[in-house]
């Protein structure tokens, strides 16, 4: 497999600008002859669709939701990073680049990250012009706040609804293009296959979720913007419909999968409270700016938090990491919460929780300021738990939140399947082994607004395309194949619900492929997953009929894909015998129990190539070379 | 977590296979419901039970389960998103119900929101209204430096208040006339509060309002039910501001609109 990253030559600061000059252009009058399919309407998909249409391309957009505005990006709370340096606190493109490479524990491609930092400022300009109501100071200027893993204030935000506002901006830009007639929108369509003709991605097959019929669409290129796969763990902060199915279909058609084991666990989520629980709710990381994380020093201390005196509280992040304190990166904060709970210091009924306490901040700044900063998050917490966080500390625990792994792409965002581009959380991205807060929104929009519009033109101008349409046999073959899978699912009529299997898979993944991993556990998971999968295909119950609106069937198909994919994720975790970022291998830690990287053996992207059903995938490496940021053991002490 | 209890409920749920087939209420028992569950988790539990008994689960739209995506929503005992103020259905927890309650659960009903199945309705009319003008025309790459646009904090806050709309459609479902005025006015005021939104302000008002009428949404006759049902507490005053824009547009800017 050819893993040419296509990183341009030259100094890192000029790579992108030189590349933009060197890439071929498509003549303006010819652009409308090219058709582009965009799957997914989150930040990545909507921004790409709008920008490509503005250039003159013909764009078809697909989403499984009833409207593009429901994409999971809508749920992002905390903010978006940019290197504007408005607060004059020492930020720069170079620092954002440096922080992101370091935060990702030196497992990302330097050139991609630099470009991301370079583009970040344009994103803010674009969003402001669209009318995104970012927080403002009294002078009318934009306000910033700080976020985990950074010592400067570079995060722009719109209350606790930054993702919503950015998505509404991108969505409205796309709506404007729909009105102009160059974007066609297809809602409630789920991608089920990617069609490859003459070695190039030339179209897709979708299932119309209203009537269950398959539909084929052809194009000159396909953009996958379908988000992350955190729901492989069943419980996560992701929305219920987030899935790996689209990426999995791409993988099976020849797009290699990179670093699937790089999953991010977010330290501040509302703890699990029952078996019926369907998802976990994130409490934005921004809360760690003013909230202090602690547990009682004594095991089994059942006193109310307010009755525990100061010297009997263990502010474990502040004590262990004096320079970053409560603002250490997510992986460090999560692991430490697990560690104190494993030691029996956890709080709440399940003892799997730690306090996030605002009483000092309320004393210092007043309730009003705290309300202004976090009002909607506090309300949400109270709605879910019935506890008022202005009066009692919140209880939090880590949960699966984001997936750094994804489809491998080169510098131009193209996968190993020519003509298939992957944007946003769905690609293996710029975040290495750990993403910093407020950087996913930045990456999704960088990909969609400012990268793909250039690189796709180069692809069109450098390739020739055979004349095909949806009547090509490859489409009907793909439809037949998926029809068989669907009929197989419908015909089982077993005794267990889809959710039941999903929950079982999730438990295995969380216990053995979660926050802390070891060889024995991973091997155990690799035995268990196929067992669950076998039983699923014998004993799942899918009600209703297939040619109808059938949510059980939709779920069943997604869980079937998770059951396949989970094995790849686990295999990747087993293969990487080092700790880095969110991937903590117990065999690889320092004496103090911190993650220990092994640059000599693992400074690479792990890339997996599909080999056919039930066969072990081929393993490849893309070496990572650090010319500008010298890898050091991360220290936040 | 607050104290957890178990309650039993009777559900009367609207079942309708598709738009063309008439629907009716079916009765189901929801037993052993933890008061810590959300309303949708309660439906999950009932659905699992139905599925195991070979009955098709109740179809309902949902996604984020955090009150932000706007996908969920149905009418519970006559109220869109249930009785709790400022709350989407996914954020309504069962501790707000009593043991033995009967809940009547039906879809959002409006001419412009045809039923797809059970509690799922087609709200794509909202997208069409946005397409008519709910945006600022700025192409990617042509934006000025962000800090060159000053926005007084008060306007930024008011814009954000209006922009908080999640497009769930509860306002339409709650209105006796199935009017979409609250939804439309929220978008118009979000953009209208900002300097960036001024150039297209009047054009936007005319186009969006006319689209809304064309799609079969009713008129506002000041019942204020929309404000009461809105899970994001979007305020009724937005409608007044929108009407003002519309009148000014019609009187002084009509030629700009086209
Ligand atoms: C609760 C939460 C809070 C977050 N907060 C922040 C934050 O503050 N800052 C930050 O930077 N990041 C944050 N993130 C991460 C960030 O929101 C996401 O990584 C990012 O929004 C992903 O955008 P996307 O466009 O790649 O995908 P998504 O927004 O997930 O969009 C995926 C799209 O693909 C479609 N789709 C998926 N599968 C299919 C299919 N099979 N067929 C058809 N369509 C399909 C969906 O309908 C959707 O339109 C947060 C994430 C979560 C879960
Ligand atoms: S499910 Fe998203 S708002 Fe309720």
Task: State the main characteristics.
heterodimer, A: 637 residues, alpha+beta, Flavocytochrome C3, Chain A, domain 1, Methane Monooxygenase Hydroxylase, Chain G, domain 1, five-stranded parallel sheet, five-stranded antiparallel sheet, 19 strands, B: alpha+beta, Ubiquitin-like (UB roll), Fumarate Reductase Iron-sulfur Protein, Chain B, domain 2, five-stranded mixed sheet, two-stranded antiparallel ribbon, elongated, binds flavin-adenine dinucleotide, binds FE2/S2 (inorganic) cluster
Description:
The complex is a heterodimer of chains A (637) and B (258). Chain A has 17 helices and 19 strands. Chain A has helices at 15-22, 28-31, 43-55, 93-103, 110-130, 162-180, 245-252, 316-320, 330-342, 359-365, 367-385, 440-462, 473-492, 498-512, 519-539, 551-575, 599-602; strands spanning 35-39, 58-62, 80-81, 155-156, 183-186, 189-197, 200-208, 214-218, 221-224, 257-258, 263-269, 292-296, 313-314, 354-357, 394-403, 406-407, 420-422, 604-609, 618-623. Among the domains of chain A are: 266-400, Alpha-Beta Complex (Flavocytochrome C3, Chain A, domain 1), CATH 3.90.700; 473-599, Fumarate reductase/succinate dehydrogenase flavoprotein-like, C-terminal domain (Methane Monooxygenase Hydroxylase, Chain G, domain 1), CATH 1.20.58.100. With 637 residues, chain A is an alpha+beta fold. In chain A, the strands form 5 sheets. Chain A has a 5-stranded parallel sheet with strand order 5-2-1-9-17, with helices on both faces. Chain B has 258 residues and is an alpha+beta fold. Chain B has 2 domains: 3-116, Ubiquitin-like (UB roll) (Roll); 124-257, Orthogonal Bundle (Fumarate Reductase Iron-sulfur Protein, Chain B, domain 2). Chain B has 8 helices and 7 strands. In chain B, β1 (6-15) and β2 (24-34) form a beta hairpin. In chain B, α2 packs antiparallel against α6, α3 (153-163) runs antiparallel to α5 (181-192) and α5 (181-192) runs antiparallel to α6. Chain B is elongated, with a radius of gyration of 21 Å. The interface between A and B is large, with 87 and 81 residues. The structure holds flavin-adenine dinucleotide and FE2/S2 (inorganic) cluster. Residues 62-65, 67-72, 88, 90 of chain B line the site of FE2/S2 (inorganic) cluster (FES).
């Amino acid at each position: 497999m050819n893993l040419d990253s296509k990183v341009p030559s030259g100094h890192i600061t000029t790579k992108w600008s030189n590349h933009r000059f060197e890439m071929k252009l498509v003549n303006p009058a010819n652009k409308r002859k090219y058709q582009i399919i965009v799957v997914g309407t989150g930040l990545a998909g909507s921004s790409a669709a709008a920008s490509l249409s503005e250039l003159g391309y013909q764009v078809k957009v697909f989403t499984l939701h009833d409207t593009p505005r429901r994409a999971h990006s809508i749920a992002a709370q905390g903010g978006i990073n940019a290197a504007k340096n408005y607060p004059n606190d020492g930020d720069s493109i170079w620092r954002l680049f440096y922080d992101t490479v370091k935060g990702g524990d030196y497992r990302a491609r330097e050139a991609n990250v630099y470009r991301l930092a370079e583009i970040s400022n344009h994103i803010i300009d674009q969003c402001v012009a669209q009318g995104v109501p970012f927080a403002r100071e009294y002078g009318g200027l934009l306000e910033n706040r700080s976020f985990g893993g950074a010592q400067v204030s570079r995060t722009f935000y719109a209350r606790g609804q930054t993702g919503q506002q950015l998505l509404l901006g991108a969505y409205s830009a796309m709506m404007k293009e729909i009105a102009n007639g160059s974007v066609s929108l297809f809602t409630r369509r789920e991608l089920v296959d990617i069609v490859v003709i003459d070695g190039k991605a030339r179209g897709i097959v979708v299932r119309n979720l209203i009537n269950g019929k398959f539909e084929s669409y052809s194009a000159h290129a396909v953009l996958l913007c379908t988000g992350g796969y955190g729901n492989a763990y069943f419980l996560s902060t992701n929305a219920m419909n987030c899935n790996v199915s689209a990426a999995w279909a791409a993988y099976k058609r020849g797009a290699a999968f990179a670093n699937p084991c790089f999953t991010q666990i977010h330290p501040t989520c509302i703890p699990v409270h029952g078996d019926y629980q369907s998802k976990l709710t994130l409490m934005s990381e921004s809360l760690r700016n003013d909230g202090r994380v602690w547990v009682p020093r004594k095991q089994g201390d059942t006193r109310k938090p307010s009755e525990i005196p100061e010297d009997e509280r263990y502010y474990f992040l502040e004590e262990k990491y004096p320079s970053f304190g409560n603002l250490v990166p997510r992986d460090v904060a999560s692991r430490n919460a697990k560690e104190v709970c494993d030691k029996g210091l956890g709080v709440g009924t399940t003892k799997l929780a730690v306090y996030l306490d605002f009483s000092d901040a309320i004393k210092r700044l007043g309730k009003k300021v705290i309300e202004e900063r976090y009002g909607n998050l506090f309300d949400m917490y109270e709605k879910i738990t019935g506890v008022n966080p202005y009066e009692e500390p919140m209880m939090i625990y880590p949960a699966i939140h984001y997936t750094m792994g994804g489809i491998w792409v080169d510098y131009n965002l193209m996968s190993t399947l020519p003509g298939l581009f992957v944007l946003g959380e769905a690609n293996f991205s710029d975040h290495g082994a750990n993403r910093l807060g407020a950087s996913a929104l930045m990456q999704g929009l960088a990909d969609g607004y400012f990268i793909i519009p250039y690189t796709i033109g180069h692809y069109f101008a450098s390739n020739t395309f055979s004349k095909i349409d949806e009547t090509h046999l490859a489409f009907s073959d793909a439809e037949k194949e998926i029809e068989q899978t669907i009929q197989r699912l419908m015909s089982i009529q077993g005794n267990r619900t889809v959710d039941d299997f999903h929950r079982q898979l999730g438990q295995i993944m969380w216990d053995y492929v979660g926050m802390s991993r070891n060889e024995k556990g991973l091997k155990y998971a690799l035995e268990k997953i196929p067992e669950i999968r076998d039983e699923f295909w014998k004993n799942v119950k899918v009600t209703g009929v297939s040619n109808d609106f059938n949510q059980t069937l939709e779920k069943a198909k997604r869980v079937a894909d998770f059951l396949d994919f989970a094995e790849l994720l686990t295999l990747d975790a087993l293969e990487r015998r080092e700790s880095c970022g969110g991937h903590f291998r117990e065999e690889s830690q320092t004496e103090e129990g911190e993650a220990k990287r092994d640059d000599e053996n693992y400074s690479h992207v792990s890339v997996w190539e599909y080999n056919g059903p039930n066969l072990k995938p081929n393993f490849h490496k893309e070496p990572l070379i650090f010319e500008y940021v010298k890898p050091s053991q991360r220290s936040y002490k | 977590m607050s104290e957890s209890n178990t309650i039993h409920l009777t559900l009367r749920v609207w079942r309708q296979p598709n738009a063309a087939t008439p629907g009716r209420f079916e009765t189901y028992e929801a037993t052993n419901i933890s008061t810590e569950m959300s309303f949708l988790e309660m439906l999950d539990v009932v659905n699992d039970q139905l599925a195991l008994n070979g009955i098709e689960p109740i179809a309902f739209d949902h996604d984020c389960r955090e009150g932000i995506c706007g996908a969920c929503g149905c009418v519970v005992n006559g109220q869109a998103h249930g009785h709790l103020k400022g709350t989407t259905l996914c954020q309504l927890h069962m501790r707000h119900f009593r043991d033995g309650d009967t809940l009547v659960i039906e879809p959002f009903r409006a001419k412009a929101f045809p039923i797809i199945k059970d509690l799922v309705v087609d709200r794509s009319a909202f997208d069409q209204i946005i397409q008519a003008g709910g945006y600022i025309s700025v192409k990617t790459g042509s934006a000025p430096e962000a800090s060159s646009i000053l926005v007084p904090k008060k306007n930024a806050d008011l814009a954000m208040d209006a922009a908080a709309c999640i497009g769930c459609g509860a306002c339409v479902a709650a209105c006796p006339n199935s009017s979409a005025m609250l939804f439309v006015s929220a978008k118009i005021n979000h953009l209208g509060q900002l300097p960036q939104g001024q150039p297209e302000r009047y054009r936007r008002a005319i186009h969006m309002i006319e689209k809304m009428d064309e799609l079969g949404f009713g008129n506002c006759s000041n019942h204020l039910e929309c404000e009461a049902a809105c899970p994001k507490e979007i305020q009724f005053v937005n409608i007044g501001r929108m009407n003002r824009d519309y009148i000014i547009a019609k009187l002084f800017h009509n030629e700009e609109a086209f």
